[in-house]
Amino acid sequence: MNATDRGTDTDTDTVRAGRRTVRLHRPEKVLFPDDGLTKAEVVGYYRRVAAAMVPQLRGRPLMLERLPEGLGGPQFMQKDTPGHYPDWIRRAEVTKEGGTVTHTVCDDKATLLFLADQACLTFHRWLSRAGRPDHPDRLVFDLDPPGPDFEAVREAARQLCGLLGELGLPAALMTTGSKGLHVIVPLDGKSDFDTVRGFAQDAAEVLAVRHPDRLTTAVRKKSRGDRLYLDVQRNAYAQTAVAPWSMRAKPGGPVAAPITRQQLDDPQLTAQSWTVKDVEGVLEQMAARPWSGAPARGRSLRTARRRLDALR
C-alpha cells in the first residue's frame, strides 16, 4: 500500500489489485478495538487471502456485514448495492417479494478490497449463482454446539459425513469463525431450492433417528434439550452462509476456515481456531488447500435421493 498524508484517521491510501487501484479511506481507523486491528490490516488480510477467497465468491449475490465504525458501533447487513459503487463492480438483480434487489457480486480481487474499505468485515454468500438464483449449487448443514463443548459438533460432523458418504455425496468442512461448523455439499445446480431443502431435511431426520440422544431436527429450542440441532434452514432462496476465508465481526477477528476430514479429529479444533490476529496461521491453512480433494463438479441429488429414501 502506498500511503499519503499519514497522521490522522482521515488519511487515504491506495492498493493495487490487478489492473485497478483501489483507494482506501481512513486506513488507520481501528475496527477491532479490543485487538487494535485497523482497516488497513483488514484490507491487508483480504488482500492476502484473495486468491483462495474470490473463487468462493465469484458469481454469487452477496449480503455484506458492514461496521463503518468497527465493533461496538452501528452494524448492518447490506443487500442492495449503493449507487456510488464503481461501475466496474458487478451487480446482480434478483427478485424478492414485491420487487427486486440488486446485490453486489465479488468477481475479482479489486472488488474484494473495495468492499473491505467499505468496512465490510464479513461476506455472506448465496448458495446459488446470479445466473440461476433459484437453483443452488451448494447444500449446507449448520452445526452449532448445544453448549460450550465443541466435541458435540465434531462428533455430529463425523456422523453426518458418514451418512453423506452412504448417499454418494462428498462433503467439505469449514469452521464458521462463530460457534460451529458448516458441512457443505457441492451440487450440480439442477435442483431447485425446495428439492434441495427437502433432501437436507430428510437426511437430517435420518441422522437424528440414528442418534436420538445427541441429535435433533426440532426447530424450537425448548424441544432440543442438550441435543445438537441439525440446522438446514440456510437452504432456501435468498438465504446466505458465511463465505470461506471471511473474517467474522467478533473480537479477535476469527475466520471461517475450510478444514480437512483429518483436522476434524483434532480435539483442539474449535469454531475460532483461525483468526486475523494470526494471519500467518490462516495463510498456512490456506496453502494446505484443505478442500483440494473435493470433486471439481457438484453432484446430482437424484441417486442420493433414491439411496436416502431406502434408509427411511
UniProtKB/TrEMBL annotation:
Highest taxon listed in the record's lineage: Bacteria
This protein's record includes keyword Ligase: yes
Domain spans labelled DNA ligase D polymerase: 38-291
Gene Ontology molecular function: any one: ligase activity
Swiss-Prot/TrEMBL keywords: Ligase
Entry-linked NCBIfam families: ligD_pol
Protein name per Swiss-Prot or TrEMBL: ATP-dependent DNA ligase
Record organism: Streptomyces glebosus
